[in-house]
């Protein structure tokens, strides 16, 4: 099968390299990927069965959480960190059904993603920030131009924080949350260190061009929500969070939760 479904302006990856963004797009059933990405997904799936179902489950979780935030929590502003390649329906398409005046900012610095996201956005509903997730000052400079920071914002980290060390990951989350209004939400999905996930990470991380991924324990994940109110049912397997008719029941590899920033209290 030949390389397909890519923008003619998309910069070519080095020969034989696997793009992290295209890998996850292929794993989630998207079309914006190359044969080498699909082969990498197949190799990981063969050694760690269930990894593609886990990837789909993470995407389903993202969609359910943003729908909850828009329909039930009334959030109108969304910042998607490590957005990756578009996969419809995406955040702006979901929330606009419930909040017509919503604003969505997607953040990534992968040139493969940039080529797709630039043509995919729907201003003023959605736009794209070309920035490293660790550079929270740059991200916030864009956020302040687009969002009303007196109102809640939802941060979404869909299975991306595993690409960062503990110090980096907490710096990203904390560096953004500190600027946001009470009622703002943190959505986080993340794989835990099951035998299948450990095997998958070893295989995936050895591929040329891939970004290493480290799973985290439930206790480690809970620390990201310190000082926040965690929305029911808490930090749970992805498919257990407000399931709907499209939710797949999978082997437990990923956990997720939504936290809300509490109002400041007087000392």
UniProtKB/TrEMBL annotation:
<protein>
    <recommendedName>
        <fullName>S-adenosyl methyltransferase</fullName>
    </recommendedName>
</protein>
<dbReference type="Pfam" id="PF04672">
    <property type="entry name" value="Methyltransf_19"/>
</dbReference>
<dbReference type="InterPro" id="IPR029063">
    <property type="entry name" value="SAM-dependent_MTases_sf"/>
</dbReference>
<dbReference type="InterPro" id="IPR006764">
    <property type="entry name" value="SAM_dep_MeTrfase_SAV2177_type"/>
</dbReference>
